[in-house]
Amino acid sequence: MTHTKTEALLKKINYIEADVEIQKQILFSIPSDQKAEMEKTISLIATKKDEIEVLRQELRELDPEEFDRIVIFENAVAEFRKIATDNPFQSIVNRNVNEECALALQNGNQEECLIKACDNEGDWTIITVDGKVKQFAAVDVAEKPPKKTDI
Fold first, then answer.
1. Residue 83 lies inside a defined structural domain of this protein
2. How far apart (Å, rounded) are the C-alpha atoms in residues 1 and 4?
3. Pair (57, 6) in one structural domain
4. How far is CA 1 from the centre of its chain?
5. Is residue 150 part of a domain?
6. What is the mean pLDDT of residues 82-99?
7. Residue 73 included in any domain
8. Residues 93-124: pLDDT tens digits?
9. Domain containing 56: what range?
10. The pLDDT of residue 38
11. For the chain, what is the domain count?
């Protein structure tokens, strides 16, 4: 029963987060002279964010382990983004449904990951399947980033 409720909460959160992203796009498209419309959209975004926070607290109470797991991944994504800001990636590969994502190392091991990215120096950053961010120097990695294609 708890699993079903947890799934329902996560679906609601995802739906509202998607709505917030749409509202942000709407906000950016509003002409700057339409202040009332901008304020209305900002207010709507704030309301939606409050709804998300209420649902997150409900999830925390209902399924603390799942909540903690989500927080681990949110923190990993934030750290990954910070690394990308400080040192932009030239390629990013992520795990899709029914696909593998692993980083091949020189020592013959593979690091299973959800996402892997290579910067311009050839160094790699990954988010592991358990939500850890790991970085590897180019000399420690056996693979090269995919070649860029011009479209």
1. no
2. 5
3. yes
4. 28
5. no
6. 87
7. no
8. 888 777 788 999 999 999 999 999 999 899 99
9. 2-62
10. 94
11. 2
Report the alpha-carbon distance of residue 76 to residue 65 in Å, rounded.
17
pLDDT over 70 (residue 151) = no
Does position 29 have pLDDT exceeding 70, yes or no?
yes
Residue in the block written with tokens 């699993």: 3
Best CA proximity match to 37, nearest among 107, 140, 70, 29: 29
Tell me the Ramachandran region of residue 122: left when phi exceeds 0, alpha when psi lies from -120 to 50, beta otherwise: left
Q: Give the number of other CB atoms < 10 A from CB of residue 95.
A: 16
Q: What is the pLDDT of residue 106?
A: 95
Name residue 34's amino acid: Q
Q: Is residue 72 part of a domain?
A: no
* Mean model confidence pLDDT for the chain: 91
Report yes or no: 121 and 89 within 8 Å, Cβ to Cβ: no
3-class secondary structure per residue, the chain:
CHHHHHHHHHHHHHHHHHHHHHHHHHHHHCCCCCHHHHHHHHHHHHHHHHHHHHHHHHHHHHCHHHHHHHHHHHHHHHHHHHHHHHCCEEEEEECCCCCCCEEEECCCCEEEEEEEEEECCCCEEEEECCCCEEEECHHHECCCCCCCCCC
